[in-house]
Amino acid sequence: MNLLDARTALRESVLEIRGDGKAGGGLVLAFQSLASLMLTDPMLHVQEWPFFSSARRGANIRSFLRVSARPIQIACEVTRPGMVLLMDEAAARSVDVAQGVPAGGTFVLNTRRSPEDCARHLRLSGRVFTVAGDDIGISCRRSRSAASPSACSTRTARRWRRASPRSARGSSTSRARVTTSRLASAATASFRSARRRRCASRRPT
Amino acid sequence: MTTPELTVPLLRIQTRSGERYDSAIDLERVRAAHRPLHTARTEVTADGNTAAAIATLQMWRAVIYPGFPITPSTKWIETVAAHVAAQPDGIKRVKLLEAEHAVADYMAGAAAACRDLVFPTATSSVGLDHMTETTRSLGASGLGNVMIIDVYRATANYPLCIEGDPSDTLAHRDDGFIQIAARGKQQIYDTVLQAPCLGMHPDVMTPTMPGYYGIKDSHRNARLTVEADSAIHAFQDRWIRPCPLPGLINGDTAFGNCVTSRFFQGFKLEQKRRMEKVFEVLPAIGGDFERTFGRPGLAFFDAAGWPESGGVDLAVVSMLTPFPSAAVREKLRRARAVLVVNQAHHMGRGHLTLDVADALGNLPSAPRVLSAFAGLGGADVSESTWEAMLDVGRRALAGEDVADGRIYHEGAAL
Quick one: what percent of chain B has pLDDT higher than 70? Predict the structure, then answer.
């Protein structure tokens, strides 16, 4: 299976991301933060918006994000997302998180389950990542109330699991221990360094 | 005992129509007290409500912000209130009222008393409906300094739907407001900046209702270019001049006055003539905006076009009221068939269909006008839905008898 390359999509067309979760769970805020981070790159065009019904805590919600190196004219919903985020497992009981995702798409799920379990249970194909985000959040809160705020980054270590297309079918899984703060800072640093490289290459000689 | 003789007649109009009291408010002091939000052109991340709020906050003429929150427009007043709260010694104030009806009433009084200041608010759906009694009066008032930003949402509480559906603004087309639809953050910001220039123009003097889609635009974050306050002030001051109020409005014949049918008809005639002046003034303001800021200004149509070359073209009407019939006729003169896509519920062929058909009606060889509905309640209009609607147009051109006025969704006619 050919995996969908996010960088190519971003450069040549539009990288589309969809998130599913429950109202009050931070999905909208997460997408807003991601969009804000991406918009610090002057070369990127970003659209981010939520989709929700009545303002009721616990109701199913969706968030969409488009990012491209070209101006984005399209305004309709994201129906074929290259990346999908499941913020709350309970949301998957009433929506098909894999709906419309082309072959080779990427799934990031907030769950204690393994990528293989999720791939089998939710019928996912492509790259499947799982992260026990709720546990991380709870332990961070405990750490913050018990000690200094920075304690959580050193004390909390959770598994960031990745399943390759093969592993999604049940074979071996590559695993890595990464703390929450490391994940966030690694993503930010990687994004910023990529931006610096792009800006530098465009600088007039 | 004799009754004392009346020395003053019971009814005596003391003030001339449109009298001004220039010394009542020191505009220069108001202007000097403005604290700039941006001193240079800046790029920010904003959603539609924030973009509209920034635009209103940058106007030195906007000092009082009456409002009442309603989804999806709430963030407008939240943003304004946060800014005002952050500057306790500034002159801008938020007036949170008990309901939308009170907001409209408050704006009527304040805008009539301070005609050179701009009074903006934002609302949606039934919030706009709740204002109706007063919006009809405001529309006729000549108070071009009133601006109701309408964040489109289906105008019903049953079933309740908070997504972008322009049925609210289309239900208020006869209120007498200039209604302009904006799409995207930049257009929202730019439209709100230009709206008072149009509404307060001495030939127009009509309140404005810029609008944009709820959720899709009100909540969609993207990059926004914000101009320096000083540049905005220079632009607006070129267009906004002190002017008297038209018609019967003065200190003696104010809101609530009962007039005879003769006066009423004359009043409505003047109101309509002022509204028709929009067709002349709007392109001039839009042109000046483009020359000043380098972005498209107010226009009858959105600049969007059909993405592919071929026999299909797209015309997106931005000006809802007054409807630019002459411009529509000119644009569609050579079309063989016109498919009008309506996004608001209508018992007939659609609000826009009727207007477009009316505009094309007297052409020597009028194109066939077809009607379709899509995106009701803010439903997504996907590419497959566009294809399905276009297919109707193609089949009609091939001479087939096609169904008119169907609702399309996810590539199928419902």
Answer: 91
Judge whether B307 is closer than 8 Å to chain A, CB to CB: yes
Chain A residues in contact with B71 (beta carbon < 8 A): 55
Span A84-103, pLDDT tens digits: 999 999 999 989 999 999 98
Q: Which among B293, B308, B334 is the end of a domain?
A: B293
Q: How far is A71 from chain B (nearest CA, A)?
A: 11
- The CATH code of domain A6-202 reads 3.40.920.10
Task: Flag whether pLDDT at B23 surpasses 90.
Answer: no
Domain extent, residue B356, equals 323-413
Q: What is the pLDDT of residue A147?
A: 64
* Three-state DSSP class for residue B123: strand
In a domain, B309, yes or no: no
Distance from CA of A63 to the nearest CA of B (A): 10
Cα-Cα end-to-end distance for chain A: 42
d(CA B330, CA B332): 6
Query: B345: how many CB neighbours lie within 10 A of its CB?
Result: 18
**pLDDT at residue B246 tops 90:** no
Substitution target from B49, B161, B223 for chain A, most A beta carbons within 10 A:
B223
Question: Is residue B14, in this structure, part of any structural domain at all?
Answer: no
Residue B311 lies in a domain: no
Q: CB B103: neighbour CB atoms within 10 A?
A: 27
Identify whether residues B263 and B334 lie together within a single domain.
no
Q: Taking CA atoms, what residue in B is nearest to A34?
A: B221
pLDDT of B340: 97
**What is the DSSP secondary-structure string of chain A?**
-PPP-HHHHHHHS-EEEEEEEETTSSHHHHHHHHHHHHHTSTT-EEEEEEE-SS--TT-EEEEEEEEESS-----S--SS-SEEEES-GGGGGTS-TTTTPPTT-EEEEESSS-HHHHHHHHT--SEEEEE-HHHHHHHHHHHHHHS-TTHHHHH--EEEEEE-HHHHTTS--EEEEE-HHHHHHHHHHHHHHHHHHHHHHHS--
Q: How many helices (H) and strands (E) does chain B have?
A: 14, 13
Same domain, B174 and B92: yes
Q: Do A79 and B380 touch (CB under 8 A)?
A: yes
Nearest residue of B to residue A36 by CA position?
A: B45
A203, pLDDT greater than 90? no
The enclosing domain of B274 has a CATH number of: 3.40.50.970
- Give the residue from chain A lying closest to B383, CA to CA: A76
- Whether B245 and B284 map to the same domain: the answer is yes
Residue in B162, B223, B380 nearest the CB of A46? B223
Residues of B in contact with A46 (CB under 8 A): 221-223
